[in-house]
């Protein structure tokens, strides 16, 4: 296939697509149970261009990527590659047809207990045409070949170390190298920089540009406006499962971000302005917290009357911090105080007794009991309060659950409905609502907006803000926009260190991004 | 019932009107009733009161053991030492009464303590020492089978026999002890009442008390249960202790039936109990261990064996039949569902605690295809 740079982008939006359109998506719809996630998405990407895909959490981005990478079959609609309709029965088929995908979480793409070399050579190892017998030398030779596609030259020690010992960004690079070694015509990158440092991201961008110049078509999914500015020839905004609008940069001025954001959030940027609340008494305070072996201790006070956001990328330690505050995990060192009294929970049960509640990061793996009704999910931590003579009082449970459901707007057929029949956003409301049955002093919310549609996101946001008037609320997120949307005070955690702590008024995108992505070593350099 | 953990909820957005859903829910029960009618019509002596009572009585030992095993299955494990503990309990009962000439109640107490100790050992191995449950209880099974042989020098302990050291044992199974399986009230042996009572208590406990609710939560998602404030290890430990004690009760019933310390007693009860527990998965489409299902499983296996035996099926084909019944029930539970791939996917997706090398911090958990995953 000849790889020549593609045609220039046509400026009109949702235009008719020309012959050079390599990837064309027409009317893709996809539902999960009652929840229609994609409602007829259409767009096209021209050969050799980089297409930015934006969408708030829950807009349907991840589902769209799954459809394009063959991980999910669409309910209707078609995907055309170079004018021909293609069907991907599974991710492998998509790969063979030249669609390479790099997912957001690098751990999905690596086998932690295998060495770097084996991970790099994984495609070769699992290829049925590869020789039956192989030795370390051949695997390593193959691995070096794969690594070269990214311009990496791993040494022998690196090749032989297990991936488990690698940092997240290195893992991400491994996955990227493997994807590139397959020589895809279409490359889908799903928030590839969320685990990368700035330098690594810059290197990745150079590579992506070079690939595009080489004729590879790139679909680049990101939240970060700066990345789109640097890379993309066109950006499409997905909201509520529809590709609402497309933008091209105006010559000399770049993208019209105000217009993009208005479409993205369904509100003008001005409407998103909000005064941060100052906050009242310190409710929960932690000092001398050391999250990693090689990081210094820090302190953090969480006040009532405001929402405190801990903003940090993958690996920043925010989940560790929240789980420790809840008594679910231990950290290297640290003291906790609750309402001025010592607080040292060794088990979540101790924290719950004192009114410290956690919404865990992963709803399905850490919060939901499969098959249970809404009311049972909600009453689980407080089951003892719904008994009489030792027996559970189903009626009281239902009434309590109903009240909470009304309060936070859970859309369901009733409190007895199994939680699986609910949409992601409503499930999330249920597992948050569970804690409203108690007496919250401190609410720790780890990624409360993950896998949640935009309406539920607003509902959860307002519930959280309302709760802040009577309890201390600490929200952990890796999403800048979420932090700005829900927080009154934003604390940036960067691999176990607090690199910024500012009120909403002081916070700006640039300052936050700087604090999130700066490498600790650089901070040290600056300090010293 | 309102509590969804106890009651299967096949409704996944659509009402359960299709045939597959119906078969999954009622297959075992319908097949049981059909077999009942068939045997009644074709086999003389099947449709009688005595036959019905005998089905129950024969299954009592394994069924009581199965109810304990079921509790360990509910918390996500499986106690394989149940059969061995039943045997140990028979041996202990015989030793207490025949060799040491204690009374029936003392023998019962000794059996219960033995069962409790084994359960606590299982619990310690699994909860504290982190041995995988199947392996821990398998090891315990072998150890106990060896122990009981050693206790009685590998012989069947009967009244009047001479031990290896020359002493002649003169004790007897006491009348109150043998009454457990032989005394009848309105034509039904006490042991059957005991089974019914234990089933009822277990059902009330699991489906109507907060502790039962939490047991289900621990089995459904241990990490979610922990983060909701459950001290998961207590429930797991408790499940093994109860399982050990119920196995001891089953052994008491068996000893009361055998009236001697048979060294091989109880060994076959393991497979029966496993079959009952797993057939229970298929009853009413529960797809998970449950009290009612385990009880129905016991009846189902009992009536098939009884019917076939009365039709002249030789006893040595029984294991084959039990095995086939078990596979049939498992097919009902796991293969006949329209979401089966997704379900299995979810079953495999056990929340596996934080990995040792888990990169710190907010790791986006990718949405995987599983039931209930709804992306918005």
Automatic annotation (TrEMBL), chain B:
It is a multi-pass membrane protein. The chain crosses the membrane at residues 22-41, 53-74, 80-100, 107-129, 185-206, 237-256, 268-284, 291-308, 320-336. InterPro entries: ABC_transp_permease. Coiled coil: none annotated. Residues 343-376 are annotated as: Disordered. One of its GO terms (cellular component) is plasma membrane. GO terms for molecular function: transmembrane transporter activity. Its main location: membrane. This is Sugar ABC transporter permease.
